[in-house]
Design a protein that fits this description.
There is one protein chain. Helices cover about 55% and strands about 10% of the residues. It is of the alpha/beta class. Strands 1-3-2-4-5 form a five-stranded mixed beta sheet. Strands 6-7 form a two-stranded antiparallel ribbon. α4 links the parallel β2 and β3.
C-alpha cells in the first residue's frame, strides 16, 4: 500500500509543479505578440494595465501614463509622445525575439482614470518601469522606478538610456529614427533656393558687401554700442532713468557700478560725435581745396572735439565725485 501511494505521488508531482508554475510566461507571450505586431507601444486601459503589471512576473514592463487630449492641457504629454513612439518602434524593430523580456505600453488618462486615481497621480506624464519579481533577473525591491520629467520634454535617446540602465546586461536595441523625407525635401529646396538667389544677386550684392565704408560704419557702431555699456544694461536690467529726489530726473548714475539706460545712449552719442569729428579732421579736411574753407572746417571740428571732450569730463566727474579736473565750458 505504501509502495503504491509513493508511485501515485511520484506520478502526480510533476503535474502539481506545472500547475503551480506562475502563468507569467503565457502573459508575456500574449502581450509580446501584440507589441511586436504593432508599430508603437501597447495601448492600455485599466484592465490591461493591472494584468500587465500584476505580480508575479518574470519580465520588465515600462508604462507611460499620459494625458494626450487637448482638454487636459498637458503640452508636455503631447511633446513627449513622438519621442516615446520612437522608443517603442526602435524596440520592436531591434528585439523581435523578445530576448530582453521587456514590454512598453501607454496608458492615457481617458482610458485609465481608475489607475490614475489608484496611484493618486495629479500630474502627467509619468514613466514607470516595473522590474521582474521572479526569475534570475528578479529585483529584491519590486517597487516601480519612475523617470524624472522635471527638466521638460526628454528625447528618445535619454529615455532609452534610462531604460537599459535598469535592465540586465546584454545587447539592447539601438534607437532608430526613420528618415523624415518631408524635412529632407524642405531643406534641399531651401538650400537650392538660397544658392539660386545668391547666384542671381551676386553681381549686385558682392560690390555692396565689399564696400569698405559700410564695414567701417558697422564696426564703429558696434564698438560704440558695446563700449558705452549696452551689455551691462541687458545683464543688470537697469532702469532707463531715475528720479533725483527733488522732483527732477537723473540721467547719470553716480559710481562706476551703476548705470542708467539713457546714460548709455548719451555716452554712445558722445563717443560717436568725437569719432566722427576726428575722422573728419583726419580725412575730409585735408582734401579741401579752398584754404579758407579748410581753416573754417578745422576750427569747427576742433570746437566740436573740445566741447564734447569737456562734456565727457563733466560726466566722468559725476561718476567719480573725487575727480579734480575739468575742462570749460562744462
Amino acid at each position: 500500500m505504501r509502495v503504491s501511494l509513493a508511485l501515485v505521488l511520484g506520478f502526480l508531482l510533476p503535474w502539481f509543479c506545472v500547475a503551480a508554475k506562475p502563468k507569467t510566461a503565457g502573459r508575456f507571450e500574449q502581450y509580446r505578440a501584440k507589441f511586436t505586431s504593432g508599430s508603437s507601444p501597447l495601448k492600455l486601459d485599466d484592465a490591461s494595465y493591472e494584468q500587465l503589471t500584476a505580480t508575479p512576473r518574470d519580465y520588465s514592463v515600462v508604462v507611460l501614463l499620459t494625458a494626450l487630449e487637448a482638454r487636459f492641457g498637458c503640452q508636455l504629454c503631447r511633446d513627449f509622445q513622438p519621442e516615446w513612439d520612437v522608443v517603442g518602434k526602435s524596440w520592436i524593430r531591434g528585439s523581435k525575439r523578445g530576448d530582453n523580456r521587456l514590454l512598453l505600453g501607454t496608458l492615457d488618462f481617458a482610458d485609465g482614470k481608475g489607475t490614475f486615481q489608484k496611484l493618486m497621480l495629479q500630474t502627467a506624464p509619468i514613466l514607470m518601469l516595473f522590474p521582474p519579481t521572479i526569475g534570475p533577473e528578479a529585483k529584491s525591491d519590486a517597487q516601480a522606478i519612475r523617470y524624472d520629467f522635471t527638466m521638460g520634454p526628454q528625447s528618445a535617446e535619454h529615455v532609452h538610456d534610462w531604460i537599459i540602465r535598469h535592465l540586465p546586461a546584454g545587447p539592447k536595441p539601438a534607437i532608430y529614427r526613420p528618415v523624415n523625407y518631408v524635412r529632407l525635401i524642405t531643406i534641399t529646396t531651401a538650400i537650392l533656393g538660397i544658392v539660386s538667389f545668391f547666384s542671381v544677386a551676386a553681381p549686385y550684392f558682392i560690390p555692396f558687401m565689399q564696400n569698405r565704408n559700410l564695414w567701417a560704419a558697422i564696426s564703429l557702431i558696434t564698438i560704440l554700442l558695446f563700449t558705452s555699456g549696452h551689455m551691462f544694461n541687458h545683464i543688470r536690467k537697469v532702469p532707463y532713468v531715475a528720479g533725483d529726489g527733488r522732483g527732477g530726473i537723473s540721467y547719470f548714475a553716480g559710481g562706476f557700478s551703476n548705470q542708467f539706460g539713457l546714460e548709455t545712449q548719451i555716452v554712445a552719442a558722445m563717443y560717436g560725435t568725437l569719432s566722427f569729428a576726428t575722422i573728419a579732421l583726419a580725412l575730409k579736411v585735408p582734401r579741401m581745396i579752398d584754404p579758407k574753407k579748410q581753416q573754417i572746417a578745422v576750427f569747427i571740428w576742433g570746437a566740436v572735439v573740445f566741447g564734447m571732450y569737456s562734456f565727457l569730463l563733466s560726466v566722468f566727474r559725476i561718476k567719480n565725485g573725487g575727480y579734480p579736473f575739468h575742462l570749460p565750458p562744462f
